[in-house]
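for the writeup, i need someone to sanity check this before i put it in the appendix. the sequnce is what the collaborator sent (i think, or maybe the updated version? ugh). structure was predicted straight from it, no edits. if anything looks off just tell me and ill rerun, i have time this weekend
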Amino acid sequence: MTETRREFSKRKQKVFRKSILIPGIPVIFFAIIIFFNNRDYFSIGHNPSSDTSKKPDRPQKVNQFSVESKKNDSINQDQDSFKKPIVSQKITVSDCVISNRPDIRLNLEIEIIYENRKMSSEILIRKNDIQTMVRSVLIEKELGEIKKELLRKELTEAINSIFGMNVLKDIKFRSFQIEKVESI
C-alpha cells in the first residue's frame, strides 16, 4: 500500500505536534513566568540618564585644535576605561519612627550606589535587611538630629556592616518625606 500525499502530510503534522508543540508550550510559559518574577534583576543595569540615542539640543563647538584635542580625548578615554562602572539601585523605606516623636513618620527613597555589578543580586536578596537597618538607624535619632549629610554617612556605614565589607560607594536620597500621623 502506498501512502498518498495527504496522508503523508497528516502524519508529518501529527509528529510535529507531538514532538515540538506539546512540550514547547509549557517551556515557553515557564520562561515567561521566570522572566516576570525576576524583571527587577534584569532591569538593574539600565540607566535612563545614560541613553546615548538622544541628540544634543545645540551643535557642539568646533575647536581649532581639533587634532590635538582628539589625541588628548583618546588618552583620557584610555585612562577612564580602567575605572569600574557605577551601578545603582533604589530602595524604599516607609513608616520609619523617630525616638522623640512617635506622631511623626519618615518615608525615604534612597539610591544605593556601588561599583561591583556582582553585588547587585546580593543587594536584592538583602533588601529587607537594608530596610530594617535604615529603620534601626532612624529610630535612634531625634527629630532635631536628622540631617541628610550625617544620615548619609551613618547609613553607608550601617549598610556596609551588613555585607562585612565596603560595598557601597555612596547613598543618595531620592525622596525624604516627613509626615505627621494622627493618633486615634
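The first strand starts at residue 87 and ends at 97. Strands lie at 87-97, 104-114, 168-180.
thx in advance!!
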